[in-house]
Amino acid sequence: MSLATREEIAQAIRNVPDFPKPGIQFKDITPVLLDSRLLDSTIEHLIAAARGRRVDKVVGIDARGFIFGAAAALKLGAGFVPVRKKGKLPWATHEESYDLEYGSATVAIHVDAVKPGERVLLVDDLLATGGTAAAAVKLLQRLGAEIIGISFLIELGFLNGRSRLGTHPVEAVIRY
């Protein structure tokens, strides 16, 4: 199976106007998930910068980051760690809150998910304003992780979310 280009993946992403509210142009990734070649190629693009480097854990952000993160972990021979919404993890957690345009949210990670010094790749589907990813970075730093990179399928560059992620290397398969 040949690797799909970034352009082929981008062409498969469906724009849904006015979802979840008027004025929002939602980027629907489900057509990518429906096609095994596009899905596999997406994972390959997401992990390209980490290939050949030691990765102990891949961390995926709730919820679509779980899809890409778990597949990336398998390809890299690493463990998978979920960062979930508050109250969804069954064990002792660290939590980090962040602001949204209409309120706030909190994400959590198990206190024993990453050991100090473990090398992690953080993965999610979308970088918009960067609040969720920045909260995940803070959680990983609290655990003593070494963040070797942060990878997104889509980056909405005009929202400047990358600026909230510090000096960590950030990659995006597709930028709008």
Account of the protein in words:
The protein is an alpha/beta fold. It has a single domain, classed as Rossmann fold, CATH 3.40.50. Helix content is 28%, strand content 35%. The chain contains five helices and nine strands. The strands form two sheets. It has a seven-stranded mixed sheet, with helices on both faces. Strand 3, helix 4 and strand 4 form a beta-alpha-beta unit. Helix 1 packs across helix 3 and helix 3 packs across helix 4. The longest helix is centred in the middle third of the chain and has 13 residues. The two termini are 27 Å apart. The model has no long low-confidence stretch (mean pLDDT 96).
Fold blueprint:
Blueprint: H1 6-12, E1 14-17, E2 25-28, H2 30-34, H3 36-47, E3 57-61, H4 64-76, E4 79-85, E5 93-100, E6 103-110, E7 119-127, H5 131-142, E8 146-155, E9 170-175
Parallel strand pairs: 3-4, 3-7, 7-8, 8-9
Antiparallel strand pairs: 1-2, 4-6, 5-6
Helix pairs in contact: 1-3, 3-4
Work out the number of β strands: 9
- Helical run tally: 5
For the record, the count of structural domains works out to 1
CATH architecture: 3-Layer(aba) Sandwich
CATH class: Alpha Beta
Order of helices and strands: HEEHHEHEEEEHEE
Q: Which consecutive residue ranges, at least 5 long each, have pLDDT under 50?
A: none
Instruction: Tell the overall outline.
Output: globular
Beta-strand percentage range: 25-35%
Stated plainly, the CATH topology is called Rossmann fold
Average the pLDDT over all residues and give the rounded result.
96
What is the CA–CA distance across the termini? 27 Å
> What portion of residues is helical?
25-40%
Order of strands across the main sheet? 5-6-4-3-7-8-9
